[in-house]
Amino acid sequence: MVLRRDGGGLTVRSPSKINLTLDIRKRRSDGFHDIETVFAALEFGDDLAFAIEPDNALTLRVRDCTGGLSTPLPVDSRNLIMQAAELLRERAGCRSGAAITLWKRVPVEAGLGGGSANAAATLLALNNLWSLNLGRDRLTEMAAELGSDVAFFVSGVPYAVGRGRGEEIEQIPSPLRLQVVLVKPASGLSAGAVYRAVEPGDTEETTRMIRGLEHGDFADVVSALSNGLQEPAQRLSSEVSKVCDAMRRELPGRVLMSGSGTTCFAISRSKREVSRVAERLRQQRLGHVFVTHTL
After folding, report:
1. Do 62 and 196 belong together in one domain?
2. Is residue 242 flagged as an active site residue?
3. Which pTM does this prediction carry?
4. Can you say whether the dihedral through the CA atoms of 106, 108, 110, 111 is positive or negative?
């Protein structure tokens, strides 16, 4: 993430992500699952602004730019942004305040990591704004406490493999820039509900995906697309099946659900191709359609 000075404050673009693979390894005693997943960061995202609050208060304003796609977000400690700010103050022994504004574009319950990215942006921005000078390792530790995907966004890399709950991050160097079309149906799914419905397995798609990305081989990337959560998500939401089926008719073999859903995506090497596909999908009124690319 790039922090930009704006007067006495900071602004930052908070990206989203897709999961090119998501292999569910086993259930853990703490209620989570061990996974292997390949994250890809997307240009599509939210914007946040941070300014010093003289009275040391923490405040959050949310401006909905989703066109009503998301339900109103809380602006108190239920929001990951506020949780991240409070955790940072606690661990740094800091009582500084901040006025935070979020321009929300990434829909919630979509499998795109919007909330996790917002939390990561908050850790990075307030560490700078408050002159705390905490290292990336300290911020990554806090990120892991906030959520499984937050550490990926703190890393700031375009592609990475996530292990453990997803918080153990290792960068994947790749020359590929993928063009992406996203379709978010009207309904959302709770990640917890989807994970409770999944049966762990033993697959090798993540290993194959890493190799494909490292070699810049688009065909290998396509052949390794896999999400162990897609089948249970389709049982819980018929809209996921409907959207993926429509997208497969446009780009066969290049479609997958992201994370725990409900967003489905298709990948291409061609911006023109995804733009044409996006227009045809909009005409089918399957949900909100976005065109973006990996970072």
Report:
1. no
2. no
3. 0.94
4. positive
